[in-house]
Design goal:
Oligomer: single chain
Number of strands: 14
Largest sheet: 6 strands, mixed
Number of domains: 1
Helix content: 25-40%
CATH superfamily: Thiolase/Chalcone synthase
Order of helices and strands: EEHHHHEHEHEHEEEEEHEHHHEEEH
Structural class: alpha/beta
Strand content: 15-25%
Shape: globular
Distance between the termini: 36 Å
Radius of gyration: 20 Å
CATH topology: Peroxisomal Thiolase, Chain A, domain 1
Length: about 375
């Protein structure tokens, strides 16, 4: 099937001002660090049996000696930051990079993990801040938010319903974890945005393969509790069997989505120039390269410096892939995401002349170190 050339026109990222390194916990929570192997993060990411039983656990093994499981630093919201402030910064940059104004955007799709209110989501509030006049929708597919939103935006532009669609994604895990819970070491915050619009001939989205991840239901869940002041608070929890479920399904989801998307696009692994795998753990990119049989130099691993930023991972990977010169115009790019209790998704695209938003101040040092992150 021949599709109209539609894809990403611009992309921007926005991260919180606080960079929290492992030393923060060593200095403030030494007892928690000392007993980390009895805490939640270790229970989630340890072999289900005495020896590794699958590829996921084999790649995880070198990190078992590290209580932080490969995380070096993560970006965390300050007291005056929120999902909305992060989304606004990313959205404004993406519109400007595309050389558009808010009046050029006739649809905005917003996926906030999580929004500022239980209901409604952030879309209308963000539209007001940006001065948008078109439609503004909320969407949810957890860590596959970006790819599900991209598929929807692309389809709507191809049908002619809309011409320029702004997709805005945010992740604010730190609001839903306690500092004295080792699971907080695993999470970070951030936001990203991209404009989907018509591109030059033969560029843009070629195919998408999405499958549900119902086998992961019950792994991560939310629990309503109260804080020290007695006020209600939602926290992220992990079930006892989370590692077993994630490790046993990881490779199958990856292969089904990636190979399915490539077959639909009519391309081969050798033709893909860059792979943007979402990296929810330090070893996930290596798991992907080994499972697909590709060279690690064809991807990057951002996890050590961002931790798990959920649905923001593919956007950050694409942004830095361009920044590092790993993605050029007309390159074939494959993006893969895995969302627990939602969907796994792979998209094949031929990269256009994609403009980047400016790098936030907190990315300055990271950009210098990023070449080291090619090693998985």
């Amino acid at each position: 099937m021949i599709y109209l050339p539609v894809g990403i026109r611009s992309i921007a990222v926005n991260f919180p001002s606080i960079i929290r390194t492992n030393d923060y916990w060593r200095e403030n929570y030494p007892d928690v660090v000392a007993t980390a192997e009895q805490k939640s993060l270790s229970k989630v990411f340890s072999p289900a049996d005495a020896t590794p039983s699958n590829k996921f656990e084999q790649e995880m093994t070198p990190y078992l000696k590290d209580p932080f499981r490969g995380t070096i630093e993560r970006r965390i919201l300050s007291a005056d930051e929120s999902s909305l402030t992060l989304e606004y910064g990313a959205a404004k940059e993406a519109i400007a990079a595309a050389q558009m104004s808010p009046k050029d955007i006739d649809l905005m799709i917003v996926a906030s993990l999580w929004p500022e209110n239980i209901l409604p989501g952030n879309a209308a509030f963000l539209a007001s801040q940006l001065g948008l006049y078109g439609a503004a929708w909320n969407l949810d597919s957890t860590c596959s938010n970006a790819m599900v939103a991209l598929q929807n935006a692309t389809a709507l532009v191809r049908t002619g319903e809309y011409r320029n669609v702004l997709v805005v994604i945010s992740c604010t895990y730190s609001r839903f974890t306690d500092e004295n819970d080792t699971l907080s070491w695993f999470f970070g915050d951030g936001a990203g945005a991209f404009v989907v619009a018509p591109l030059r001939s033969n560029q843009g989205i070629l195919s998408t393969k999405i499958i549900n991840t119902s086998a992961t239901c019950g792994t991560f869940y939310n629990e309503l509790t109260t804080n020290a002041e007695g006020k209600p608070r939602m926290l992220i929890r992990a079930a006892k069997n989370t590692n077993r479920v994630l490790s046993e399904t990881a490779v199958d989801y990856l292969r089904e989505c990636c190979l399915g998307a490539m077959i639909a696009a009519g391309v081969t692994l050798d033709e893909i120039k860059f792979f943007a795998f979402n990296t929810p753990t330090a070893w996930y990119s290596r798991l992907c390269t080994e499972a697909l049989g590709i060279e690690p130099e064809r991807t990057i691993n951002l996890y050590p410096h961002y931790a798990n930023i959920g649905p923001m991972l593919p956007i950050a990977n694409l942004y830095h892939g361009v920044q590092l010169g790993k993605i050029h115009e007309n390159d074939l790019v494959l993006v893969y995401t895995i969302g627990s209790v939602s969907n796994a998704a792979a998209t094949v695209m031929r990269w256009g002349n994609v403009a980047l938003g400016s790098a936030p101040v907190t990315l300055a040092n990271l950009t210098v170190r990023l070449p080291n992150l090619v090693l998985t």
